[in-house]
Amino acid sequence: MSHYYTTDDTPHEFKEINYNINGKSYRFTTDRGVFSKDRVDFGTDLILNAVFQDYQGPGYFIDMGAGYGPISVTLADHYEGDGIAVEVNEDAVSVLDENMRKNAVNFDIVNRETYDEMELKTDLYVTNPPFRAGKDTVLSILDDSYNRLIENGAFYMVVQKKQGMPSYLKHLETLYGNVEKLKKCKGYYILKSIKTN
């Protein structure tokens, strides 16, 4: 059985969905085997709204676990900036590239192996992590965010309480020395930390 964080070899099932946020409309092509292929999921919508309300930007962003690109595309458009979308699923990468072009924005798209070899720092790090990949994977993303952010850079993640929110909050507090529950809705939390040194 394949998961959204692995590559699927079954026939493609392309679909186009629409997503509206901040008075703008975006079009995304999705495929079978990618996360939330029928609509932009509640957690992604929640974190995007939270980031847009909280983060002034502009700045270079990292979208870790980008999927078909709703976070990367809207960040690049909203902040009129550039960034990097990191994704392990080859099918998601394929439609992510199409969605970047379709929505007339520009950023880099890389797999995790390539990303790990890159030396880059960022102002903004946003993730809706692949929780089904396991806690160690999610913790490695949190650690990576701290290593990649510049001083005063901002980290945002979305997590449900049942997905282990308290333990991730504690890890961020230890890592950054600060963490804020920026928003809570329907069991989902947006956690925010700032790199202070």
How does this structure look, described?
The protein is α/β, with parallel strands linked by helices. Helices cover 34% and strands 28% of the residues. It is built from 6 helices and 9 strands, in the order ββαβαβαβαβαβαββ. 42% of the residues are buried.
Write the layout of secondary structure elements.
Blueprint lengths: L14 E7 L2 E7 L11 H13 L6 E4 L5 H9 L4 E4 L3 H13 L5 E3 L1 H6 L4 E6 L7 H14 E12 L4 H12 L3 E6 L2 E7 L3
Helix pairs in contact: 5-6
Q: Any idea what the shape is?
A: globular
Please state the CA-atom Rg, rounded to the nearest Å. 16 Å
Between the first and last Cα atoms, what is the distance in angstroms? 43 Å
Taken in chain order, the helices and strands follow as EEHEHEHEHEHEHEE
Number of strands: 9
Low-confidence stretches: 1-5
Question: Main β-sheet: number of strands, strand sense, barrel status?
Answer: 7 strands, mixed
Structural class: alpha/beta
Q: How much helix is in the residues?
A: 25-40%
Provide keyphrases for this structure.
197 residues; seven-stranded mixed sheet; alpha/beta; 34% helix; globular
Summarize the model shown.
With 197 residues, the chain is an alpha/beta fold.
